[in-house]
Amino acid sequence: MGIHATGTFLGMKTVVPVMKENGGGSIINISSIAGLTGGSGASAYTASKGAVRMLTKGAAIEFAKDSIRVNSVHPGVVETPMTEELLKNEQIRGMLEQTTPLPRFGQPEDIAQGVLYLASDESSFVTGIELPIDGGYAAQ
């Protein structure tokens, strides 16, 4: 909770005044599919990512008048150094492969492209959304 929920809150608390002075901006909070589905088996992690989701929605409404857009990204399983050990376990890997409709795990670049869109002027009328980048997991 301290890292995911409080850290996200404090980050926004710090940047919003600067964005207001500069006429707006875009905040992109990183949550997780666990913040959408609650099925990770780690309730504290799920709760913290759900908090990021709802903090994002509240902030999107609160700061829209200041031309500050606030959105969240919800990655699924992404092959990174952080997930390397987990994905070495064949049983866990197989289960995760079966629950991800697209036949691969995500790559950091997949997440970066979604963040780039939300940071860009191409999303100038987008605020308060949850963008799952999860290979179709949350669509089930």
UniProtKB/TrEMBL annotation:
It holds the Pfam family adh_short_C2. Keywords: Oxidoreductase. The keyword Oxidoreductase applies. SUPFAM superfamilies: NAD(P)-binding Rossmann-fold domains. One of its GO terms (molecular function) is oxidoreductase activity. InterPro entries: NAD(P)-bd_dom_sf, Sc_DH/Rdtase_CS, SDR_fam. It comes from the Bacteria. Belongs to the short-chain dehydrogenases/reductases (SDR) family. This is Short chain dehydrogenase.
